[in-house]
Write a structure and sequence with these properties.
Number of strands: 15
Helix content: 40-55%
Radius of gyration: 22 Å
Oligomer: single chain
CATH class of the largest domain: Alpha Beta
CATH topology of the largest domain: EreA/ChaN-like  fold
CATH architecture of the largest domain: 3-Layer(aba) Sandwich
Number of helices: 16
Strand content: 15-25%
Low-confidence stretches: 1-15, 17-22, 200-211, 435-440
Structural class: alpha/beta
Mean pLDDT: 84
Length: 440
């Protein structure tokens, strides 16, 4: 619902999507102007200084197709890697495809052309990671790592779990290559998935309504593989790769089963999986490890500061804050007022460059624009209660309809959801790669 009330003191109703809250608009705009750190060329220093000794730095995005969100996150990540010794970047992407890029940037792969490596991102929405912004980051990581010993090289990993069949393929290939005695067991276990022709939705329907789930078999296999770990001379992380692919198979099975039933369970399974992968990566990299996580605002911004909590949904930001000390987790949100974005009209449809219309009146993005159209960073601290008001905050996914975006606003207490907020007034679409005439 959108409503407003205009008085002589400019008091207006704030748009939240569900409720109406009165707030003196002039007070909010004055607070934003007072706290904003404006920029033309992004400077990571303010964020860097406030990160402190955090072990987890979570960098959001308000869309999956905005160039500035990728390039600004890259700048922050580079500074954290160079000056604070962060160990890896973990993103909202599939483990197998991101691991191919990890092998490239760490020098494990025989591939010498980054564009050949990017072909691994072949599952829709491929533009999220097969884009020129990621190519530039990958080349920087590869050059940076070339000067470091193997154990100090900075990785690039995927936290997500959509890649059920790809991860199964990776497990089988690893067991075949290493001559593992578990190969035949794995083939037998994974044959449970064969009737569904690599369709997670079909598997979910069958498992939910006809009791043909494969979970018990996958759990048993995962336990056996954990007992009999082995490493490869050509890939020091082969053990980790096997472990995470096996975990993806287990959790993706649960995810697709829950997805068919509806409700918050599938979302919660996914975000819980991403947190578990992050923790396993931290354990792999040792006691001094530190992680940079790139995901949508809806994953990294604390769910307790939104209406997600009313739906029974949790997310990565909330879980990490709950599981670690306050100063160990630092969360940065992102937003824009208008511009262009890469998205699709429906799931699986071709990508398009779309116009992002000006932010809805009385949304956080609208107020940030009214306070001054310059790009800005706001660092949140105690005593800024005005940012704890519930106001709509725009979230654009891979499927987007600019004409019908009213439902894209998440009621948000901004300073509870994030530790800092980066606002770019007018943004542009990222640059997808085109490989072999396939838009990715």
């Amino acid at each position: 619902m959108v409503a407003f009330l205009l008085h002589a003191n400019l008091e207006r109703m704030i748009f939240t999507g569900k409720e109406e809250i009165r707030l003196p608009e002039s007070s909010l705009l004055e607070q934003i102007r007072s706290d904003a750190i404006p920029f033309r060329e992004f400077n990571a220093e303010p964020i860097f200084n406030q990160v402190g000794n955090a072990k987890y730095v979570l960098l959001g995005e308000a869309t999956h197709g905005t160039s500035e969100f990728y390039t600004i996150r890259s700048e922050i990540s580079k500074k954290l890697i160079q000056e604070k010794g962060f160990s890896f970047i973990a993103v909202e992407g599939d483990w197998p495809s991101c691991y191919a890029l990890n092998r490239y940037v760490k020098g494990y792969s025989q591939e010498t052309n980054v564009y050949d490596v990017m072909r691994a991102f072949n599952r829709w929405p491929t533009w999220m990671w097969a884009n020129r912004e990621i190519v530039e980051l990958a080349e920087w990581l590869k050059a940076y790592n070339a000067e470091l010993p193997v154990e100090k090289r900075v990785g690039f990993y995927g936290l997500d779990m959509y890649s059920l069949w790809e991860s199964i393929d990776e497990v089988i290939q690893h067991l075949t290559k290493t001559g593992s005695p578990e190969l035949e067991t794995a083939k037998k276990v994974f044959s449970c998935f064969e009737p569904f022709e690599r369709d997670g939705h079909e598997y979910g329907i069958s498992a939910s309504f006809f009791s043909t789930d494969c979970e018990e078999e996958v759990v048993q296999l995962l336990v056996e593989l954990q007992k009999k770990r082995s490493t490869s001379a050509e890939d020091p992380e082969s053990e980790l790769n096997l472990e995470i692919n096996s975990l993806v198979a287990l959790h993706a099975e649960r995810y697709y089963r829950a997805m068919v039933k509806g409700g918050p369970d599938s979302w919660n399974i996914r975000d819980t999986h991403m947190v578990e992968v992050a923790h396993r990566l931290m354990n792999f990299h040792g006691n001094e490890a530190k992680a940079i996580i790139w995901e949508h605002n809806t994953h990294v911004g604390d769910a307790r500061a939104t209406d997600m909590v009313e739906e029974g949904e949790i997310n990565v930001g909330q879980l990490l804050r709950e599981q670690h000390e306050k100063d160990e987790v630092y969360i940065v949100g992102f937003g824009t007022h208008r511009g262009t974005v890469i998205a699709a009209r429906e799931w699986g449809a071709p990508l398009e460059e779309m116009q992002v219309p000006p932010a809805a009146r009385h949304s956080w993005e609208d107020y940030l624009h009214l306070a001054g159209p310059e790009n800005k960073v706001i660092l949140f601290s105690s005593g800024q209660d005005i940012y704890r008001k519930v106001i709509g905050h725009r979230a654009i996914g891979v499927v987007y309809h600019p004409r019908y975006e009213r439902g894209n606003y998440v009621p948000t207490r901004l300073s509870d959801r994030y530790d800092a907020f980066i606002y770019v007034d007018e943004t542009k679409a990222l640059s997808p790669l085109v490989l072999e005439h396939v838009y990715v």
